[in-house]
Predict the structure of Rod shape-determining protein MreD.
Amino acid sequence: MRSIYKYLLIVFAIVLQATLMKYIAILGVKPDALLILVIAFSLLNGSGEGITLSLFGGILVDVLFNNAIGFVTISLLIVAYLTGILSKNVFRESTFVAFIFVFLGTILYNLIMIFSMLLMKYDLNPSYLLNVVIVQSIYNSIITIFVYKYIVRLNSFVKSKKFFFKI
């Protein structure tokens, strides 16, 4: 139950994503706070925790905001699993490593979403979507530079025995 803080942070990120992120959009592209958190916790704690957090957050987003259930969840699951697998041989608490993982993870996440939409025969403009993917990847990576140290602190706080209350 130590990770209840992480689940609360995921809920907070989803609320933040739905309310305030539209005001800081660049070129019509919003940063994805949920994706940044899932990649960060997968990088810090491995694919097991990344998968559980991505399942929780992805199902919440799919149920609350999407018509097709599973788009966000499956994309987050794949990104979290690959991040957890690839993070075994890197310095996990480095902001530069997180920057690279979030940049590549955002590209993969969006490509999976685009591929899923193409399979569902959505009418898409591929060149516009590729520009959105690149802008969002850069945007998410820049935000990661500023928030990753706080995520690392929260993660080490949760792993320690310091709690505000017993669960």
